[in-house]
Design brief:
256 residues; alpha/beta; Rossmann fold; 7-stranded mixed sheet; two-stranded antiparallel sheet; 9 strands; 42% helix; globular
């Protein structure tokens, strides 16, 4: 059965896109068929993979605004072994015009594509958004990347509120697979304090690999990879943060 992951938190700068792209590549390296769906109007997932989103004629927004378009026609192969449905800036107006009764628009699109893939990974926008709720309705699982800083705790609380509302209504089987600390500077007191706080309140949701906490270390190589238009896993495979994402893919792939 296809697993559909929403990468979500209501806080910018948390590493959602970096996580979505590198998780897609990490799972692809494990022999899985992967589709990445960009639901952020900034189109950063596509840019991260070297796609010139400003030049695109079709995108995920096409499926929301045009009748009779086959989702298969919007899929683009990447140079990294997995597919993507990219986003463009016109998605912002579509999202802003959505109302609460339209929170189920994405699900039939995802359901139609699911038989072709082992995993569908959705990168969401960091704001309060009907489109992000669409992702939670369409998902089977949620992964929450959280920057190891104090202000991220509010975004975590807001995200759990969204998840709980969706579970009470349109998607009662939605599973929170875990919280992923990102941009972790292990040698700082702030990072240690935030991780301790998260562990105190959400211990069961912290992911572990061989009894070690799974977190993504802060690394300039991840930023360089974006500039180079490729996942960090392929840009600098021996980098510590890249290895962290490889561990994440292993843990995710082992989940039921």
């Amino acid at each position: 059965m296809t697993k559909v992951y929403a990468i979500a938190i209501r806080k910018g700068g948390s590493g959602k896109t970096t996580t979505a792209v590198n998780l897609a590549k990490g799972l692809e390296q494990r022999g899985k068929h992967i589709l990445l769906i960009d639901l952020d109007p900034q189109g950063d997932a596509g840019k991260h993979l070297g796609i010139k989103t400003r030049e695109l004629k079709t995108s995920i927004n096409t499926l929301f605004t045009q009748i009779g378009v086959n989702p298969l026609d919007i899929i683009q192969p990447t140079n990294f072994g997995f597919d993507i449905i990219p986003a463009t800036k016109d998605l912002d107006q579509t999202d802003r015009s959505m109302v609460a009764s339209q929170t189920g628009l994405l699900k039939p699109i995802v359901d139609a594509l699911a038989p072709r893939y082992d995993y569908i990974i959705m990168d969401t926008r960091p704001a309060d958004s009907i489109l992000s709720i669409n992702a939670l309705v369409a998902a089977t699982h949620v992964l929450i990347p959280m920057q190891a800083e104090y202000l991220a705790m509010d975004g975590l609380i807001d995200t759990f509120a969204d998840i709980n509302n969706v579970k009470r209504g349109l998607n009662p089987n939605l599973q929170v697979v875990g919280i992923l600390p990102t941009l972790v500077r292990n040698n700082t007191n702030l990072a240690k304090a935030v991780l301790e706080d998260v562990g105190e309140h959400y211990e069961r949701l912290l992911l572990r690999h061989n009894d070690q906490l799974v977190s993504i270390r802060n690394s300039v190589k991840l930023s360089e990879a974006v500039y180079d238009g490729q996942p960090g896993i392929t840009y600098a495979p021996d980098n510590e943060a890249a290895k962290d994402y490889i561990k994440l893919a292993e843990v995710i792939d082992a989940k039921e």
